[in-house]
Amino acid sequence: MLAVGGLAAAGGGYFPQSWGWASLGLAWAAAAALLLRRRVELGRAELAMLGLLAAFAGWTLLSVLWTESVPLTALEAERALLYVLALGAFLLVGPSTAGVVVAVAAIGAWSLVAGAAEPVGYTNGLGLLAALAILLALRRPTLLLAVPLLLVVLVRTDSRGAWLALGVGVVGMRFPRSAALAGLSVAIVLGLTVGAQREEYWPAAARQAASAPVLGTGAGTFERVWLRERESLQVARDAHNLYLETLAELGPLGLALLLSALAVPLIARSRAPAATGAYTAFLVHAAVDWDWEQAALVVAALAAAAAVLTAGRGRGGPVPRAPALAGTGVLAAVAAVALAGNALVARSAAAASASDWDASARWARRAATAAPWAAEPWHRLATAHEARGDRRAARADLRRALERDPGDPDLWVALARVTEGAERRAALERAARLIPGVSSASRSRPARAGGWRRRPEDSRRPSEPVRRSAGCPGSG
Predict the structure, then answer these.
(1) pLDDT at position 439, please?
(2) Which domain holds residue 187?
(3) Which pick of 33, 138, 358, 359 has the fewest CB atoms within 10 Å?
(4) Rounded to an integer, what distance in angstroms lies between the CA atom of residue 325 and that of residue 15?
(5) What DSSP assignment string belongs to 248-306?
(6) Is 98 in the same domain as 239?
(7) Same domain, 307 and 433
(8) Per-residue pLDDT tens over the stretch 419-469
(9) How many domains does the chain have?
(10) Mean pLDDT, residues 265-280
């Protein structure tokens, strides 16, 4: 399974530049199936899940109309597009769960040699991948050869959340709905009692949902709300609970679309118990960690979901080839546009890490053209101009960035660094309102690296994944 292995190797699929390549590969696979297969059929359950997931992705994109941050919401929509293409490709081509097991085993062997959570970048993410692969390996006797290696990986991650998911998956092989409900209850209790900062994240997300009870505050905006709501200096990008965060960001309709899509494999007739168990394990773990942001995990789970649906398929209906090809082409074109911007930003970041400010500025200008809605290219261009001593150009760049994302406190702090007098005071005051209780000195830090969103703990180059300690069920 090239998609899972490639995403896992690229920092777990966290960084945006990995989404475009995976999306294009999956779109190509779907188009090939539509063109080359003599008969293409999908059952009602398959169409239902694909349609509902596409509707969720559409609602995510639509939230740019009311979001607190258009750039952050656009990124969420890009990742949701990847998931739609992944599910569609798996349903059309056939889910290769054996390929998932092999890919995860290879990534696990890599981690044992490289150490810690390499190359995924997050120990709990690697642990959950190993747990899902163990469950999927139960589908075929030959795949059991990979189980000892995967168990070693799971033990080494010391991820109690992954062990919980494995236990839920074993029970879910026989009783998926009961296992999901019981597992969610246990996971939430553990998350509140022994989880890392979840007793702070979840109430903040609940207040976020209450502040915008109809539409939410827009996809991807939890991190902005958290900066205003937090009672400590703890930095968080996600609420560590997919369902609560979705309610807070996309409102009741967004949550209903997501839950409806994810529930289809649980209510479908199951003739693939191992895949059902793996999928159930993912659903439970997503309630206590930032799994949705790790594309490798979600794509692996969607492969399991597709295996459940195709195994239980009754009489299917033919898929109209021309409309399906047209839709796939449109999604591939969108993914290509997004990839262009993300890749250029990543190049600018890599050049900045090497202190090659001319190259960083050149790539940033191209990124600003490729993604005119994004603020990060202008932030990077400002950083390059500031490093070269051109404060006037840096000020102009930052004002353009703020036009696109006025709620980003990093931009206001950066503007304060290159201005003086009343404008500097105004920028610091605006940053202080966005991050209450945190001094401007503690906020002053280099521009973000590694893509348009990065893990806050990461100050390394994009090719150097973050090592995050394992918590229970996941770390902060």
Answers:
(1) 40
(2) 2-314
(3) 358
(4) 28
(5) HHHHHHHHHHHHHHHHHHHHSPPS-HHHHHHHHHHHHHTTSS-GGG-HHHHHHHHHHHH
(6) yes
(7) no
(8) 999 999 999 999 999 988 544 333 333 333 333 333 333 322 233 333 333
(9) 2
(10) 92
Residue 192 confidence class, pLDDT cut points 50, 70, 90: confident
- For the entire predicted model, the pTM comes to 0.91
| SS3 annotation, 62-103 | HHHHCCCCHHHHHHHHHHHHHHHHHHHHHHHHCCCHHHHHHH
Same domain as 45, residue 133: yes
Same domain, 287 and 436: no
Is 206 among the domain residues?
yes
Pick the closest to residue 471 from 246, 164, 129, 120 (CA basis): 164
Q: Which residue has the tokens 């047209």?
A: 326
Residues 6+ apart with CB under 8 A from 114: none
Asked whether residue 450 is assigned to any structural domain, the reply reads: no
- Determine the 3-state secondary structure of 42 from DSSP: strand
**Same domain, yes or no: 58 and 158:** yes
Q: Which residues contact 172 (CB under 8 A, 6 or more apart)?
A: 179, 180, 183, 276, 277, 279, 280, 281
Q: Rounded to whole angstroms, how far apart are CA atoms 48 and 145? A: 35
Residues in the chain: 476
pLDDT score, position 193: 75
Q: At 318, is the secondary structure helix, strand, or coil?
A: strand
Tell me whether residue 226 is in a domain: yes
Residue 196: its pLDDT value, please? Answer: 67
Q: Are 234 and 348 within one domain?
A: no
pLDDT in tens, 40-66: 899 999 999 999 999 999 999 999 999
Average per-residue pLDDT for the chain: 89
In a domain, 225, yes or no: yes
